[in-house]
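Supplementary material to the annual report.
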Amino acid sequence: MPDRTLLRVEHLRKVYESTTGGVEAIGDVSFTMAAGELVCVVGPSGCGKTTLLKCLAGLLRPTGGVVEMDGAPVTGPSPAMAVVFQEYGRSLYPWLTVRGNVELPLRHKKLSRAQRRRLVDDALDAVGLAHAAPSHPWQLSGGMQQRVAIARAVAYQPEVLIMDEPFAAVDAQTRADLEDLVRELHASRRMSIVFVTHDIDESVYLGQRVIVLSSSPTRVQEDLAIDLPPERDQIGTRALPRFTHLRTHVYGEIQRARRGRAIAPRPAP
Ligand code: ADP
Ligand code: MG
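Predicted assembly:
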């Protein structure tokens, strides 16, 4: 059932209240996502991407509108979702081994020790870190630490994997490898993934769809199908004229949104 609607966001609005007045981080955002999709959300820094993600994951209560997961409203932290944040350094427990970190959220699930062990082994294998199970996070590079965070999310078997600028803090080569890991997890495990980034090229390289956000108060500036071949590679795909065309189009949309005019999207590229 490739078209089952998994996530539905309707007229989402979020205002942060403070003593000096409110900040309208999200104005009016609506979109749906089908099970098994890899959707990138791209927008300039400060446009409300993290706020949107936290509302999706039930970590923040929206001011208005609804988020629905499999037809049911999300009202609190949802066991159906796993989130990978940018700051891998703060998301792993330094006193636990890699295995311990990946296993920790599974303790909330009704699983036998053998089942837990199997899920952890499988997830570490999927991210290429089977050999690092007994290490501690601080013994690993930044890129490897982020792989541990991804393994933890994979082992948890969420309905949706939500990633918030997960590779913004690693070097370019590591970043490319991690992007390919995300594509691979999506292709081989049919994982549903929402990937948030401020990097336009990254969004086009990774996504089957790119949702372009305007600056705050955020709206969906464009919802673009990425018609690049599903088999992608860092050199070949990025050299395709179609890739250049799409990333230039997205860049233009973000510029237009920032200027705050001509909000109706241009025809699809
Ligand atoms: P992004 O992730 O796209 O960089 P954020 O969602 O972090 O954007 O922030 C969107 C807007 O909301 C920004 O103007 C930011 O300053 C504001 N904001 C974010 N978190 C809070 C908060 N806890 N309280 C008040 N304002 C916030
Ligand atoms: Mg953010």
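The chain has a mean pLDDT of 92.
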